Amino acid sequence: MRMTTRAWIVASALLAASAASAADKPDTLALLKNYPSFARITKETRLSDGDVNIIIRLCRGANRACEMFTADGDDIQTLTDYVYLFATYKGGYAEGKPTSRNGQALVEEADTRGYGKALLDFYQAKYSCQHEKDGVACVMHGLWTEGSIKRQVYVDEGGGDFGIVGADEDGNTIFEY
Amino acid sequence: MMQRTLYTILLLVLPLVARAAPTAGRPDTVSILSKNPAFVYLHKMENLTDGSIRYRIKLCLGDGNGCDLVAYSRDLTALADYAYLYLIHDKEADVQNRPSAADVIKEARDKKWDQGLLDAYAPGVHCVRDKDEADCVMKGLIKSAGIVRYWSNLDEDQDIYTLMTH
Q1: Most buried one in A166, B63, B102, B126, CB count within 10 A?
Q2: Do A47 and B42 touch (CB under 8 A)?
Q3: Is A50 near chain B, with CB under 8 Å?
Q4: Which residues, in sequence order, are CB contacts of B57 under 8 Å at separation 6+?
Q5: ipTM confidence score
Q6: What band does A91 get if pLDDT is binned at 50, 70 and 90?
Q7: How far, CA to CA in Å, does A47 sit from each of B23, B35, B145?
């Protein structure tokens, strides 16, 4: 009986440790998937050679204005982590009229459940960003570089026309259509 | 007597069968186009949230600054068939820079594959005896397969499209 209790205590400790580890690094793909009207995630596979590309769009205003992030290869985790941090800290998605489309619910969840901070803590250690003035920017730069992430911004101008720009990491236009 | 009757039936039926059969086979356009990555970009697009799948095809015949065709559909075969007909019937004069595209067109003409494709689709999209059968079938395919076309004005790597209105 004593052994059983001890085994239970050990198992509980292991489970707790495992849960703590999972809490350290949230599953950002699953979290983004919970808000499909805000975040659209597409996997592109080239049929001739099986080459894979992941695209995530964060949209607001009935998809009339979107940020689009892509990464070469199938390193979806780096991309989803980057996009989750962008949505939570940099996109301003909780501002303005509160609707599911502007990502407010995701931003609130990241805050109240601590997912945003957990993600930051994980990567601040990885990228040695603990002492940086802007820890979020430092982490996001690390992810941007590691994931070879590309960014585009497009706005639905009506009548089937889109205004589209390719942007750098800070959102500055690097080419314009 | 029995043999003679069978022979007579065969004589009567064979010409009818021969007339009904298409003059050319129907090509596997997905396979043909996938073997030409120099100017064809064929992608499966999987929405990871809801699992829905669309396909996108791009034909890029020039030296950059845009592709000649960017189109999406949930029906891969119809999409590839549309792109194949588009290449042969609308872009024959624009393949100077793409020898592999010229080869695809030549093979289609030699083997009458484009006509085989038109014959296969024409009845279903009400284009039999249409004055411009290819144009009619292509328009019919757009409607029946839900093909959406985009303009493309930047090169392949920049991936910039705008929706075409039909």
Answers
A1: A166
A2: yes
A3: no
A4: B33, B40, B41, B42, B43, B69, B70, B71, B79, B80, B83
A5: 0.75
A6: confident
A7: 30, 10, 20
